[in-house]
Write the structure tokens for this entry.
Amino acid sequence: MSAQQNIHHIDEILAALPQKMRHIFLLNRVHGRSFSEIAAVMGISSRAVAKHMARAVAACEARIGSEHDDTV
């Protein structure tokens, strides 16, 4: 895959996440915000941020895994 295709694929995977989960994921992974910073900005607990992140990562891994299984 080319870099452009990879970016488009990642964008599709992230777009499939619920909006709040996607926002938290991007704040952490792209913008480098800590869980406590995200919690303060969004008005939720750090524990809730951690749960959203865990679910986001699991959803991304599941999607990538299922796509990999389809190509094998």
